[in-house]
Amino acid sequence: MEADLSSNTGISRRKLVIAGGLVGSGAVGTVVYLTGSGSDSPSLDSTESPETQDAAGAPSTEVEAAEEQNFIYNTATEMEAIRKKVRAGEDPWATAFEALEDGAGTAMNMTPRSVVDNTDNDYPAHRFVARLHERDDYRALNQMGDGVLDLGLMYYFTGRDRYAERAIDLLHHWCLAPETYMAPNGDALNVGPELRLHVLTPKLWWGASFLRNHPYWSDVEPTMPWTDDVAENGEAAFQTWVRQLMESMPPAGYTMRDNHWSWRLAFYSSTAAYLNEVELLNRIFSVWRAETEVPKGHTVLNLEQGEEYYTDKDRPWNDYTKQTADAGYMKQELNREEAYFYTIFNLQALSLTAEVARVQGVDLYSFNAPTDPGEESTMKKLFNFMAPYAKNPGSWKWGNGPEGIQSGDRQRCKTIFELAASKWPEFEEAVVKGDPQRPFSSYYIMRHPTLTHANRSRLPLEE
């Protein structure tokens, strides 16, 4: 039974002062919008299949223009199938939805937060997620991202406008309000907070992907608090904020490796998917596959500078190390003091980009890294390596940090296996065996993995 939240509809409507500029020419396809009202869920005209293939029958390696609007990490068809499972009370989706209800209830009643909350003499006014007192900024961003995502999902599942309006209020407070906005610059203080943004901010636009074209977006004054530019409406303003934040980030090139490289690509891929940037998505997937060098000094969006392909270089994957014929690991993560955490952390980022690609009809899960020729995919070998420790973390043989393997680490490990088991059903044992039990949660982006990604093979995905 859904909690009665009708007495709290969030911050009252206001004329929002917002960042401007249209998203650009990258938007493609016919958008299926969710504009629900009342207690009935909106309907979807879903035709997207879970992945596409080229004429030869092999998975496609490039994104093509979509026929419908997807939700970054799920196709519209998948989300409709999950909604049917929830309505039918079928687990694990129904129990996972109860966890979502709890999160949405918290978001409806929370005090909105921003990067300007803690201004004092020791902590001057700022518009950025900064290193100084960074943990509070970090917690505030995580809390707001959780709220937006939970509310966006609840709007999708229930069609109740109060959830959408509250989510837009939170986005307005964090991104657009003159008094509280975070400037869309990932490194404005030159202190390198990008990783903090990469692991949390995609929750904002993942939640917003469920709010496309909601009428509440149009109830705004589309001017920017930091320039004289204007947008068409509030949604276009938020999309401009997202684009500017992405463009402020350094490129994920061949000079990077380990989880910083992986998370930068996870950030870029989710952003490009939200903005419907097909050409950019293809470039990101090419970089992920170690095919495309991002020229030094150029942003990942600077496509006009030309492409440079270096198929003989394997630096982004040179950490991959073979353990057995069907299992391997990333050696830099395994050599850390907190090797359990960082091995999962890196694999989660790689998987998130693979999930974005999957929704776009591109198969990164079956990729063989330049350092890993062989019949089985590199990603599957990374999961094979971790599977015994998902079932029994106590058998972990490497570093687990001064405080040991934490409950959050075990949750994150189960999270990545929700993704893996939907690609390779043989990993279902790693999901259900050992503690914790479903539904799982993760601090980083994949907030409700059991709800959004469990048992895809059991979803009614027929058209």
Sequence-ordered SSE layout with sheet pairings:
Layout: H1 76-87, H2 93-109, H3 134-158, H4 161-176, H5 194-200, H6 202-208, H7 234-247, H8 258-274, H9 278-288, E1 292-293, E2 308-309, E3 320-324, E4 327-330, H10 331-334, H11 339-359, H12 378-391, H13 407-423, H14 428-432, H15 449-453
Antiparallel strand pairs: 1-2, 3-4
Q: Give the C-alpha Rg.
A: 21 Å
- From the spread of the alpha carbons, the general shape counts as globular
Q: Determine the fraction of residues in helical runs and give it as a percent range.
A: 40-55%
What structural category characterises the helix and strand content?
mainly alpha
Number of domains: 2
Give the biggest sheet: 2 strands, antiparallel
> What is the terminal separation in angstroms?
29 Å
Order the strands across the largest sheet as they lie in space: 1-2
Q: With helices defined by DSSP (H or I, 4 residues minimum), what is the helix count?
A: 15
Mean pLDDT reading: 80
Question: Per DSSP, what share of the residues sits in E-state strands of 2 or more residues?
Answer: under 5%
Would you list the SSEs in sequence order as H and E?
HHHHHHHHHEEEEHHHHHH
User: What is the strand tally?
Assistant: 4
Low-confidence stretches: 1-57, 300-313
Please give a structural write-up:
With 463 residues, the chain is an all-alpha fold. It folds into two domains: 239 residues, no CATH class; 194 residues, no CATH class. The chain starts with 75 loop residues before the first helix and ends in a 10-residue tail after the last helix. The N terminus is likely disordered.
